Amino acid sequence: MSYTGDVEVGGPPDMRELPGLTITKLAVGPFDNNAYLLRCTATGEQVLIDAAAEPERLLELLGDAPLSRVVTTHRHQDHWGALGAVVDATHPSVVAHPDDAEALPLPVTEPVRHGGTVRVGQNTLSVIHLRGHTPGSIALLYGDGDTPHLFTGDSLFPGGPGNTWGDATLFGRLMDDLEERVFGTLPDETWIYPGHGKDTTLGRERPHLKEWRARGW
Question: In this predicted model, what pLDDT tens digit does every residue of 89-137 receive, in sequence order?
Fold first, then answer.
């Protein structure tokens, strides 16, 4: 079956095979978080995006292949609830933006900023800093030809930007970053992998930017 990105807590993962990279999506925990395991097809090296919850399921997903890094997209606890257990079992580098690092339960050993990179074997993810949901929220971009793949944490979902709790300043900052750094640079074909729920594409969301601005959330 082809990849859909539709996963449920307690259910099986969904896998997508790209040139050079395999993406496995798993839903975990009481807040229906998405964890993404990226595997380099050439080297077998793996990177986990958001060790959110249910460490035993995440470790089962890893199998016997090495885990080189765990990336935390932002500081909220539902995105790092299993970080300690996964790191204790596999000893990877801990990756996050410095502006959110102090809230994590473990020291960040590989800090990343806007324009930085994260390696997955022979592949490179580009770091996009999206301020607003938290000060140090990041997205990770894998450029695969005409169809880039973007892991957005809680900064972009189907239907709008992440929560900014009615704060007009935070909302404006997040929208500015999304419009400049995501919608302003990436094509409609870009596949969006959010921190919760179903996937989407930039093309699906782009027509609604003015609507989001007007509603203020």
Answer: 999 999 999 999 999 999 999 999 999 999 999 999 999 999 999 999 9
| H and E: helices and strands count for the chain | 6, 15
Which residue reads 């949901």 in tokens?
133
Torsion sign across C-alpha atoms 198, 202, 205, 209 = positive
Mean pLDDT of the chain: 97
Residue 172 has which token pair?
A: 């404006």
Separation CA 120–CA 182 (nearest Å): 21
The answer to whether the CB of 44 falls within 8 A of the CB of 21 is no
Pair 22, 38: CB distance under 8 Å: yes
User: Which of the 8 DSSP states describes residue 206?
Assistant: G
Alpha-carbon distances, residue 158 vs 90, 125, 177, 193 (angstroms): 33, 22, 17, 10
